[in-house]
Write a structure and sequence with these properties.
Elements lengths: L7 H9 L3 E3 L14 E3 L2 E3 L3 E3 L12 H12 L2 E4 L7 H7 L4 E6 L5 H13 L4 E5 L9 H6 L4 H7 L8 H6 L7 H8 L7 H9 L4 E6 L2 H9 L4 E4 L13 H12 L5 E5 L5 H9 L4 E4 L1 H33 L12 E3 L8
Parallel strand pairs: 4-11, 5-6, 6-7, 7-8, 8-9, 9-10, 10-11
Antiparallel strand pairs: 1-12, 2-3
Helix pairs in contact: 2-3, 2-13, 10-11, 12-13
Bound molecules: flavin mononucleotide.
């Protein structure tokens, strides 16, 4: 899987979880454990959701549709990537009861951005997720070496491709250019929070910003009127060297306290104890990126379901072993950084 530069952040996101220690409470009745919750008001069975990942059709022929079916059967949120292999409509028809959000960037051409939003609204998507850590593409060394996609494939991936829609057709690039160039060309290096204000003015859907890593940006997000923040380092594919997301999470949670804005995180979540740590440090839910693709590549919809089941069951086990029978029992004091246990000598 690709990553920026040396992949320091990608590795650190995973490893940083191991630097936090669990502090269990004993002799609690944990015979009945309850971990259903709500995310932006939608009831979900557990606080483990699906991050947007491009190119799911490379992992499975049914791609995003298979992932959506898994999300539907497990009753959790899936964020559909703007680079999905299928249209929003096809994905929502494949899983009509899934809680689907869609991810996009603020594209150079506002018409393209608006088209995305309207198409997703019509398809019944429940929120718009704006990825804000990509004013330019990160330096994905390994991806750059291997990119071979044609313009037509790339249009299909951009999922706004509709040969009968002249507005969109004239808005997106013509000719045989590579995906990399096309995506890079569509990003807006001059974009500011004003873009979020504009988005607010064209849709009533809740807005989630994905890619916030500091308290300062979190405060700006609240001021721009977002409904939720997804603390994310883009899986270590944008700026290499940023903090692990589990390290950045408390700062963001603290910055938005009292605003009503929900905070989630993704990056390196691989097991139930990771979920527990993220929730203890203030996340309302975690999102999985790569593990979903691994499940999808392994066994389509069932593979994605299996991944979600494994992480959910491990999370349930962690709750039992830490003395928690409901999500509210998970307290900040139950997870501390390892430095608190290191000798002061
Ligand atoms: C192959 C791949 C494709 C991705 N595509 C997108 C995308 O289209 N939009 C986006 O906002 N993030 C994208 N991401 C980032 C993920 O949404 C997520 O932030 C990251 O994968 C979480 O880290 P994890 O993979 O360690 O779980 C992608 C990540 C990967 C690995």
């Amino acid at each position: 899987m690709d990553h920026a530069d040396e992949g320091q952040t990608m590795k650190n996101c995973k490893n940083a979880f191991k630097r936090y220690r669990l502090r269990p409470r004993v002799l609690r009745d944990v015979s009945n454990r309850q971990f259903s919750t709500t995310i932006l008001g939608h009831p979900v069975s557990f606080p483990i959701c699906i991050s947007p990942t491009a190119g799911q059709g490379f992992a499975d022929i049914e791609g995003d549709k298979a992932t959506a079916r898994a999300a539907e059967s497990m009753n959790t949120v899936m964020i559909v990537s703007s680079c999905a292999f299928f249209t929003f409509k096809d994905i929502s028809l494949a899983a009509p009861n899934a809680i689907l959000w869609f991810q996009m960037h603020l594209y150079k051409d506002r018409k393209v951005t608006r088209f995305y939003v309207k198409q997703a609204e019509r398809a019944g998507f429940k929120a718009v997720v704006v990825t804000v850590d990509t004013p330019v593409m990160g330096n994905r060394r390994n991806l750059k070496r291997g990119e071979t996609m044609t313009a037509r494939e790339e249009y299909r991936m951009m999922n706004c491709y509709d040969p009968n829609n002249p507005e969109v057709r004239s808005s997106i690039a013509n000719g045989d250019i590579a995906l990399w160039d096309y995506l890079t060309e569509q990003l807006v290096t001059s974009e500011t929070w004003e873009g979020i204000h504009w988005l607010r003015s064209i849709t009533k859907l809740p807005i989630v910003v994905k890619g916030v890593l500091t308290g300062d940006s979190a405060i700006e997000a609240v001021q721009a009127g977002v409904d939720a923040i997804l603390v994310s380092a883009h899986g270590g594919r944008q700026l290499d060297g940023v903090p692990a997301t589990i390290e950045a999470l408390p700062e963001v949670v603290n910055a938005v306290k009292g605003s009503g804005v929900e905070v989630y995180m993704d990056g390196g979540v691989r097991q139930g104890t990771d979920v527990f740590k993220a929730l203890a440090l203030g996340a309302r839910a975690v999102f999985l990126g790569r593990p979903i693709i691994w499940g999808l590549a392994n066994d389509g919809k069932n593979g994605v379901k299996k991944v979600l089941e494994i992480v959910r069951d491990e999370f349930s086990l962690t709750m039992a072993l830490t003395g928690c029978s409901k999500l509210d029992d998970i307290k900040a004091s139950m997870v501390v950084h390892e430095s608190q246990y290191l000798s002061k000598l």
